[in-house]
């Protein structure tokens, strides 16, 4: 079973994403900020991470930069999920190592398409 880590300071967003991911047979863990997420990755590196940008203690971008510096953190697929939608933020996230980028609010079709694109779900992109 593939594993997924949902990192967002909103419990509602984590719950919605968890429900979608579990529906596609992922085993899902949650973290409320980047520091918690790093701790979770020390235990078991997930196959995928859904990552918010603006969080307390450690932003999503800071987390991603630290994750990608780790040898075991390079293979994990990271999808940024945020309200920051300008081209500069998207370019910054992708250059820091994000595999994809989706905007909040998102729905099941959008998340599924991104998972297919990064190779975590079988199927054709919508």
TrEMBL record:
Gene3D superfamilies: 3.40.50.2300. PANTHER family: RESPONSE REGULATORY DOMAIN-CONTAINING PROTEIN (PTHR44591:SF3), STRESS RESPONSE REGULATOR PROTEIN 1 (PTHR44591). The modification 4-aspartylphosphate is found at residue 52. It comes from the Bacteria. Keywords: Phosphoprotein, Transcription, Transcription regulation. The lineage of its organism: Bacteria, Pseudomonadati, Pseudomonadota, Alphaproteobacteria, Hyphomicrobiales. Residues 3-119 form the Response regulatory domain. The keyword Signal does not apply. It comes from Ancylobacter koreensis. Pfam families: Response_reg. This is Response regulator.
């Amino acid at each position: 079973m593939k594993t997924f880590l949902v990192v967002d300071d909103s419990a509602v967003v984590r719950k919605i994403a968890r429900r979608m991911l579990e529906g596609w047979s992922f085993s899902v863990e949650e973290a409320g900020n980047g520091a918690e997420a790093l701790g979770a990755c020390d235990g078991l590196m997930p196959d995928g991470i859904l990552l918010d940008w603006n969080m307390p203690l450690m932003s999503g971008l800071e987390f991603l930069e630290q994750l990608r510096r780790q040898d075991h953190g390079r293979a994990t697929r990271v999808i940024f999920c945020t309200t920051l939608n300008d081209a500069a933020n998207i370019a910054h996230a992708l250059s820091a190592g994000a595999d994809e980028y989706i905007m909040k609010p998102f729905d099941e079709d959008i998340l599924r398409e991104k998972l297919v694109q990064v190779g975590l779900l079988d199927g054709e992109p919508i």
